[in-house]
C-alpha cells in the first residue's frame, strides 16, 4: 500500500489516519513500526505518536504495549496483528444472539457490523450516531434483515423497546469502557428498563488499569464531553462482555485482559 514511502512518512500516514477499522490500522501500524527494528529509541517515539493520535483505540494501545515490552518487538507486532485478524468475536456474538430478538445498536460498530448480517431472524433498531445509521440499515436490508433507522433523539425509546442493547467497546478498563457517544444513555435506559446490555469487546480491547487511566485522561482533555465522538460508560450498566468465547459475566470477561503495561506509553509526546 505504501510502496517505497520513507518509514517516517509511513508512520505519519498511520498516525494521521482516522475512521479506519481497528484491524486495518493495527496491521498498517505493525508494518510502519517494522522500520524501527534497529532503533529502540525511535520505536518508543513512534509508539507514543501512534497512541497520541489515536488515544481511543484500544487495539493500538494493546499493539504498542506488546511491542514495547517484547524481547522481539517486530515478531510481537505481527503476532498481535494476526491475533486481531483471527478474532472470533463476531461469529461468537452472531451465534449467541437470542432468536427473533429486537436488537438496539448505536452506529456501525466493527464486530457488531460483522455479526448482525449473519442473522436473518432479527429486527435491528439502528440509532443514527455519527451519521452511520442509514448506511448500516442499508447493509442489513441487503441481508434481508428488518432494520429501522432511529434518529439520535430516539435512543432512549429504542433502548427501552428492544430485547437486547448491543454496544461496541473501543476499549475496556477494569470498571469502565469506551463506546460511541450515546452509549451511556442507551445503557442507562436499558438497565433501568430491565433490558440486557451486552458490550462487544473482542481481541485487543481490554486494557490494564494504568493504560486505561492514561487513555481516559487524554479523552477528557481532548474536548468537552458533549462534543466527543466517544464516551466512557460504567461497566455496572453492562450485563455481559462479548469476546471470542461469546457473552460472559463482566468479571469473567475481564480475565481475558492480556495487555502488558508499557510505562513508555504513559508519557505523552
Write the layout of secondary structure elements.
Layout: H1 7-16, H2 22-33, H3 40-53, H4 58-69, H5 73-85, H6 89-96, E1 102-106, H7 110-115, E2 123-127, H8 133-142, E3 146-150, H9 155-161, E4 164-172, E5 176-180, H10 183-193, E6 197-200, H11 209-222, E7 230-234, E8 240-243, E9 246-248, H12 250-254
Parallel strand pairs: 1-2, 1-4, 2-3, 4-6, 6-8
Antiparallel strand pairs: 4-5, 5-7, 8-9
Helix pairs in contact: 1-2, 1-3, 2-5, 3-4, 4-5, 9-10
Describe the structure.
Strands 1, 2, 3, 4, 5, 6, 7, 8 and 9 form a 9-stranded mixed β-sheet that branches. Helix content is 45%, strand content 17%. The chain contains 12 helices and 9 strands. The model is unreliable at 1-8 (pLDDT under 50). The relative contact order is 0.14. A hairpin with a 3-residue loop joins strand 4 (164-172) and strand 5 (176-180). The chain has helices spanning 7-16, 22-33, 40-53, 58-69, 73-85, 89-96, 110-115, 133-142, 155-161, 183-193, 209-222, 250-254, and strands at 102-106, 123-127, 146-150, 164-172, 176-180, 197-200, 230-234, 240-243, 246-248. The chain folds into 2 domains: 7-86; 89-254, 3-Layer(aba) Sandwich (Rossmann fold). The chain has 269 residues and is of the alpha/beta class.
